[in-house]
């Protein structure tokens, strides 16, 4: 996407859009649950990256051009449609207007699940909304026929309760009795824990007694009926105001130097801060604010050198920023929590808050997401030459871009403190592995250069046959860091000497421009793979002379795409360095202080010491433990990065379509579009443990276990569970370590039908239908490997997560006949009405069941599955159709969609090589709780079918010859029909205590639909006065 000729991409995570629910603001591209299951913002800088893209008001747009051809080399640095937005310019006549859009609670319907929830009062069923969007435009001449201007301003004010709601889970018996004895009674009732009042930690007592705005920081249960709470997935509903305010401006100048030389300047300003009452935890008191904005400026000069030669050059700058911060109503100090003296409230989490609901609970900020963001500056320049010679139109050009991506992470003073159960929090036993704080430089300053060049010839061979041939070169330069704070892993350089238990070479390297611990001979980017490529393009357009008004088009193109983004440098989860900003707190540049077994809520880091700063390669290598250290439980080194050997991903695209114009006002089209992707970037867990057997020992291990079911024959409890850390290919590295490797493939095939009816007899229609199938090994840029065994990628090749088999869209406009002739007062009232509408029908999203608890792949990852999305397998002989209780239409959200009884835990059968067994008194006893991967692939189910009708009624009244007024009423989701999301597909079938798993039954909410996509019926009123 480009805006006024300036590329709008970012090298943070590549996202250029943000999900929009109805017309309400939303800041993410993912899905997170809110009250009643409506998909809403999680105010994550990672997810809301697209919000920093300039989005000029519709009233300022001159042209929105979409190039979906497969053969234009002038664009096409990436596959897929290329969108170019251009804002308006001034003319010799003054023109402009003022407008206002409003939305209000009184016009809207209640969201589906809010309406059904008994925890929400009738008064609050329709979330409060106060939305205003005033704006103005003006353009005209500064000097007639010479210098023109255009300017616009728009302001958005959105105060929206829907984005200020959240559900949470607290113990069902938590009441307003917050005395020590009251909490003791709650622990007994909800967790079966027997403790005394004197055992309650003082900080825990203060935490549960703290109030915000007159209410308890940790609220009492609102739903005390267990069955109801299990079905809804929560027992507390919270609500507070949320706001979104945007200021936008456009300023354009056009200078006609002479009849052959034109210079245009365009500028867009956008500042759109938002505030949400929930930062990262389950409670109020820790509001999160996001500062988001952009500035885009460009210069465009077009010179006609000769009647057949035109030269255009462009230069532009773009600044995007997106920073989220979390406030705190209470401080750590005020509650008696001492974490190295920081006043910042920690990110507190409890894995199991209630033995009935089996849900987690959190308080405070979101750990190392709490105060993070990015600031990107980009400068670009391009030049193109267009030469017309006989039958040839030759175009050649180049572009250069320089990016500065500055990552800001102010989380070094925000501790993360976790507890396995609420009882542990109350009595003061932290989960040492989940308790940490970071010390060191957590900001990063990345730099990227990109270059492109192309040449193409559009040849008109005969009057009805044109061929376009071109080639494009793209160099998508790798990331470098200003101070060399960039590490990578070279697998081929790793060396382990088993006879001396010495890691002779870790394979870890540091960017060559690091002045302290840079690795000799390593580039500043640490990459050595080819980051460039040549892409040929060809297109043919033929109009058969024997067929009237028929055009046949076909084309082929090869498109390279950027592979490396900042977010790929971070581990998916675990070890305290997870998430898209995880790399900024990773060793060797930042030291992690972890909790201890003596730690309590009052002193989470009691007895902990700060590791030394890594100032040389020896200290860096010391972060990777050897076998002896691993046996004693030493923490393994978690690494994630972009494979240094990667080459650029690319796609091969082809198309064939036929266009027919049966009458002057109508065009029909039928076509086929295909795509094959190569070198798709996948997060590969390169250190997944192998299976050790007596005939295939691994690092001295002859059995394989992730748990400690039989301690006598499963004595090891390595950092990542069982003997997993001793069975890895690269001893000393965490088994959840990942390299983003360019190893994936994808395919797309589509049959497309289109109808376009130009305006005639007052009616205009554009309709399209696509029947398609998309397959890949990973859908989109993710932090987790979406599938089962990453060492067998073929098993992960399946329907894409964003595949939509059927998509039908119709847009229409109808001018109602004038009821009264002439321009009388009655005519002005009754004439000038029109209807506009958009109707969408589409298949639901594919999905599958997922279990991270160790019930799938436990022999490899124990219950620390932090890099995979392990697929829950169906029982042998059960098909996806048999496991589906409802179809994709006519859904009853009160009944489950999936039959949980058709899934199973893939426990490894006794007798399988590597399964630990022992014989006691002549009886063989084996570990029967180790789990492997199942045979069910990813995305085997299909979500509910979705439909939506949006309509607008418009009334245009001409006040004078130059002034007109337009009134409009937009009704979004006219029939208030809910589009359901996929059902609850996440399970926790294992509960692991001291290395021993217990099989859990699936919760009653598994397979139930709990979320919707899109919003309920919403009405927007608008008024325009134009001149």
Folded structure, characterized:
With 1027 residues, the chain is mainly beta. The longest helix is centred in the N-terminal third of the chain and has 12 residues. It folds into 2 domains: 406 residues, no CATH class; 404 residues, no CATH class. The strands form 13 sheets. The protein has a 26-stranded mixed β-sheet that branches. The chain has a 4-stranded mixed β-sheet with strand order 2-1-4-3, with no helix packed on it.
Uncertain ranges: 18-43
Secondary structural class = mainly beta
> Tell me about the biggest sheet?
26 strands, mixed
Number of helical elements:
10
Radius of gyration: 31 Å
Task: Find the count of extended strands (DSSP E, 2+ residues).
Answer: 53
* Beta content: 35-45%
Count of distinct structural domains: 2
Question: In angstroms, what separates the terminal alpha carbons?
Answer: 31 Å
Helix content: under 10%
Instruction: Summarize model confidence as the mean pLDDT.
Output: 90
Shape: globular
Write the layout of secondary structure elements.
Layout (H helix, E strand, L loop, with lengths): L1 E2 L2 E2 L53 E7 L14 E6 L7 E10 L7 H5 L12 E15 L3 E14 L4 E4 L11 H12 L10 H8 L1 E2 L2 E2 L9 H7 L3 E4 L3 E16 L2 E11 L2 E3 L11 E19 L2 E18 L20 E6 L8 E3 L8 E18 L2 E18 L6 E6 H6 L8 E4 L4 E19 L2 E12 L3 E2 L5 E3 L5 E3 L4 E4 L2 E3 L21 E11 L7 E11 L30 E4 L22 H5 L5 H5 L8 E3 L7 E14 L2 E19 L53 E23 L2 E14 L21 E2 L6 E10 L9 H6 L2 E10 L3 E2 L2 E2 L6 H4 L18 H4 L33 E4 L2 E4 L14 E2 L3 E13 L5 E9 L6 E2 L5 E2 L2 E4 L2 E4 L12 E2 L4 E9 L1
Parallel strand pairs: 1-4, 17-21, 33-36, 42-49
Antiparallel strand pairs: 1-2, 3-4, 5-6, 5-53, 6-7, 7-12, 8-11, 9-10, 12-13, 12-14, 13-15, 14-15, 15-16, 16-19, 17-18, 19-20, 20-23, 22-32, 23-24, 23-25, 24-30, 26-29, 27-28, 30-31, 31-34, 34-35, 35-36, 36-37, 37-38, 37-39, 39-40, 40-46, 41-45, 43-44, 46-47, 47-53, 48-52, 50-51
